[in-house]
Automatic annotation (TrEMBL):
CDD domains: S1_Tex (cd05685). InterPro entries: NA-bd_OB-fold, Ribos_protein_bS1-like, Ribosomal_uS2_flav_dom_sf, S1_domain, S1_Tex. It comes from the Archaea. This is 30S ribosomal protein S2. Residues 51-120 form the S1 motif domain. One of its GO terms (cellular component) is ribosome.
Length: 121
């Protein structure tokens, strides 16, 4: 291996395929802890209702939208058409992994345990 220095990759992974910083990860952990302390943490899909406004953390950005942690086991999806009131070609134009965003619940699929969100104002 020569003079190469090995760095643990998990220190730089924010989520999914995106690479972030350790500072962003610490900020996300503090935010999650604060939500749990305030009693605002959603524990079950049955706690969610259409029309609710929630805060969440962007966990992954893909071509078709953004996956947001709102406190459930599975992240909720905000489709690219629900991210902005104006046309965007890529969700990275508006958000990045680690952003704290305000979202509105627009759909709940209890059978598949999926939540649809909107970031539009």
């Amino acid at each position: 291996m020569g003079d190469e220095m090995l760095v643990p990759l998990d220190l730089y992974l924010a989520s999914g395929i995106h690479i972030g910083t350790t500072q962003k990860t610490r900020d996300m952990e503090r935010y999650i802890f604060r939500i749990r302390q305030d009693g605002l943490y959603i524990l079950d899909i049955n706690d969610i209702q259409i029309g609710m406004t929630l805060e969440g953390i962007v966990r992954n950005v893909v071509d078709f939208g953004v996956f947001i942690d709102i406190g459930l086991k599975n992240d909720a999806l905000c489709h690219i058409s629900e991210i902005s009131n104006t046309y965007i070609k890529n969700p990275l134009e508006v958000v990045e992994v680690g952003n704290i965003v305000s979202v509105k619940v627009i759909g709940i699929d209890l059978d598949r345990k999926r939540i649809s969100l909107s970031m539009k104002r």
